[in-house]
Amino acid sequence: MRVLVIGSGGREHALCWAAARSPQLGALFCAPGNGGTAALAENIPLDPMNFTACAAWAERQAIDLTLIGPDDPLGGGIADIFAARGLRVFGPSAAAARIESSKAWAKHLMRAAGIPTAHARSFDDRAAAEEYLRNYEARGGAYPVVIKADGLAAGKGVVLARDGAAARAALDHLLVAGGLGAAGRTVLIEAYLEGPELSLFALVDGARMVPLTPACDYKRAEDGDAGPNTGGMGAYSPPSFATPALLAEIEARILRPTVAALTAAGTPFRGLLYAGLMLTREGPKALEFNARFGDPETQVVLPRLESDVLALCAAAADGQLDRVPMPAWSAKATCGVVVASAGYPGPSASGLPITGLETLDSDILVFHAGTRRVADGQLVTSGGRVLTLVAYGETVAAARAHVYANIERVRFAGARWRRDIAAREQPVGQ
C-alpha cells in the first residue's frame, strides 16, 4: 500500500510511525512533513491547503490511502477534492467536518439530537452578546463562563472568563478587534462545566463506529492548568477513571447519537471523530468534537495500538469497518510531554539548534512537530510545539516517571514543558 500523510506536526509523525509498522505498507510519503518524519517517510514539499496540488500529486503517484492530519484542510474540503478524483482518503467531507469547523453548527446538531452538552448561545454581533451577558448577570448567572470562537483556531479559540470583565474583553478581542480573524466572527457564550476531562477517538465509516482507547490531554500552557490555552502540552493513556461502564455510557449517549445525527443531517462522517468530554456530576457531556486525530493524544494512543492502523483507516474510508477485527491494545500505559519553544502559544523563535536526542533512553519515542533539518543536517526548531516525548510504563505513574527522567536531556534555547502531566493520575487498576 502506498500511503500519503498530510501535515507536519507531532500527530503526523505519530501517524507515519504507526503506518511504518504496518505489514501492508509499500511506500510512505508525508506532505510537507518535518525533521522527524523524514526518517520514516519521503517528505514532499506540498502545501496542505493547496488541495488540488495535493490530490494531483497523489493521483500521479498512485497513492492507495491518504491520511489527513490537520483540521484546516479538512474544514476546507480536501477530502472532497480527493474523493472527486476517486482517491481513497481517510478524513470527512467539509460538510461533515463542520462538527469541528463550526462550534455553533456542532452545538445545534447536539441539541437537536439530545446529546448531553453545555448550554450555549452564539453571537456575531457585539451588542447582542453584551445584552445577553447583562441579562445573564441580572438573573444571577454565575461565572466563570466559556467564550469560544466558532471557527478553527489551532486550539487557541477558547477563553475561560472568570468574571464579566474577562468575558467582555474576550468578546472585544474576537468580535471587535478580529483577534482570530474569520474564526472569531461568530462566538459562543457557553456554560462552564466542571469535572475531569477525557478524550475519546472513534473510527467512523459513515454508518458504523469503533471507539479507540481513551486519553487525557492538557491544554493550558503552564503547570496547574494555568496560562493560556494551547494546542496541547501533554497527554497520557489510559486514564484509570475511564472504566468500561463509563466508556459504554459515552458510546451510547454521545458517540453513536452523534454519528447518527451527522448521517441524518445528510453529512455522513468517515474518518476519525474525536470527542472532547467533561465528566460532570450529571454524567459525561460533550465539550466539543474534532474531525481528526488529536494532538498530542495521537502520540500516546497510537503507541498502544497493537492492530494494523492502515487496515483500520482503509476500512473506515471504504465504509467497511465491519470487515476488520476490533482494535487490540497494549496493557502498557503511555505518557507524553510536549517540549515547546519559549513564548508558545504566542510568537516563538525558530532556527534554534536542538541537541540531546541521542542521549535519550532507547525506549523513549520522540515525535517531532516544529523541527526541520538545515543544510548541515543539524536539527533546529521551526515552531511553537517542537517535540513530544513519549514513554511506556506498566502504569501511568511509571510512564510519567520515565518520560520526565529523560526530558531534561533535550536542549535548545528557551525549551520549556509542563511538569505536571499525569501528576494526579493513579496507577492503572487502583
Summary tags:
single chain, 430 residues, Rossmann fold, Dna Ligase, domain 1, 5-stranded parallel sheet, 5-stranded antiparallel sheet, 12 helices, globular
Compute the gyration radius: what is it?
Answer: 21 Å
Stretches where pLDDT is under 50 for at least 5 consecutive residues are 426-430
Give the count of helical stretches.
12
What is the CATH C level class of the domain at 2-92, in words? Answer: Alpha Beta
Structural class: alpha+beta
**Global geometry:** globular
What fraction of the residues are assigned to beta strands by DSSP?
Answer: 25-35%
What is the topology, as strand order, of the major beta sheet? Answer: 3-2-1-4-5
Helical fraction equals 25-40%
Assembly state: single chain
Summed over residues and divided by their number, the pLDDT gives a mean of 95
CATH fold-type name of the domain at 2-92? Rossmann fold
* Amino-to-carboxy terminus distance: 42 Å
Number of strands: 22
CATH architecture of the domain at 2-92: 3-Layer(aba) Sandwich
State the major sheet: 5 strands, parallel
